[in-house]
Amino acid sequence: MQRIRFFDIAKGIAILCVILSHSAIEAQFVVPSHFAKLIVSVCFSFHMPLFFILSGYFMHPERDFRWAKEARQLLCTYLLTGVAVLLGVTCVATIDHGSRRDALRQWGKAVFYGSGDISELTLWPVDFRIGAIWFLLALFWAHLLLHVFAKLPQTPIWVAGCFALGYVSARYIWLPWSLQSGMCAVAFLYIGYLAKQHDVLGLMQRFHWLWLAAGVVWIVDIAFFGGMSMAMNDYGTKPVLAVVGSLAGTLCLVGISECIDKVPVVGSALSLAGRSSLAILCVHLIEDDVLPWQMILVSFHEVLPQVPLTCTAFVMRLPLDLLLAAALYYVPVINEWFYPQLAKKQLGRKAVVDKA
Q1: Whole-model pTM above 0.90?
Q2: Residue 323: C-alpha distances to residues 240, 241, 318, 339, 355 (Å)
């Protein structure tokens, strides 16, 4: 199947927003500002829902669940990224003359538990959070659950019940491996799947006023943003607005991406970022966990106090993440885990050879 480039562009924008929002959060710890708060509100209003919705858009849950493919692209990438984090924090502890044993113990717990953020409701004490790659574990569970629900009668009821159970249970206990995040994420996958089945984008093209309506809802969500963390099933003080706003924001980003697709250079760059989003997410997580960004930003703020610290952090992190992701592209074998398109090419070559 030929790739639809504007979907890759949308994912490219979203992965840049992941880096930007994390930069804003780090900046907030050093120098709180309204600018950083606005960046967090905009980015968190849509970026992770967009990834789940687009994943659902291209799903075929009526087919058998492909265990090997899902494990390789999601679980293996999680484990490899976790190992890289452990190596990184061990190196930093050595440089700082700290305890390598403590670093490995604390971060080992974080890698094993797989929680996107720190919680007091874990089954046992976990000092640190693994961070952004909670998404990989949650996506695995969400894919598996939707494959199960799609084969049951009354699929929407099962999906809604799963979301409700994941959301309510997270108020009392936080289970390992981002299981509850996946339980809620299955609803976003299903929405994406339904959007494809009912040609929502075609409907938007026929009735242009729907873009305006989606834009208004998204702006309202940003203006009254009460928090949203799919990592911890926290939909803030206005959960209904957060969910509806994330759907509207995703629609708007797809529409914006269609427009960007007509600009060759920008469209090509963002499309490449979208196709590399899994690799970028994982290398970003490594530098986010390993490097002492707050200390680094304090030093830069003393030198450049007039520059918004969010911009400073983003400008520093983005080239690093892109370079690391590009390097990962050339690592044999594991590059197919982080770049699924390489695995598809390999399968295509194998099919040609088999036919010959």
Answers
A1: yes
A2: 39, 37, 9, 15, 38
Length of the chain (residues): 356
pLDDT of residue 355: 57
C-alpha distances out from residue 89 to 99, 102, 109, 316, 327, Å: 10, 10, 13, 20, 20
Residues whose CB is less than 8 angstroms from the CB of residue 133 and which lie 6 or more positions away in sequence, other chains included: 77, 78, 81, 82, 281, 282, 285
Nearest to 316 by CA among 296, 336, 331: 296
> Residue 145 in contact with residue 162, Cβ under 8 Å?
yes
Q: What is the pLDDT of residues 236-280, one digit of tens each?
A: 999 999 999 999 999 999 999 999 999 999 999 999 999 999 999
Distances (CA, A) of 174 to 127, 179, 232: 14, 9, 8
8 Å CB contact between 27 and 310: yes
**Single-letter amino acid code for the residue at 240:** V
Token look-up 């190196």 returns: 91
Over the stretch 105-142, which tens digit does the pLDDT of each residue have?
Answer: 999 999 999 999 999 999 999 999 999 999 999 999 99
Angle, CA 120 vertex, CA 288 and CA 137 arms, to 5°: 50
Dig out the tokens for 173 from the structure.
């206990």
Q: Locate 169 and state its tokens.
A: 């249970």
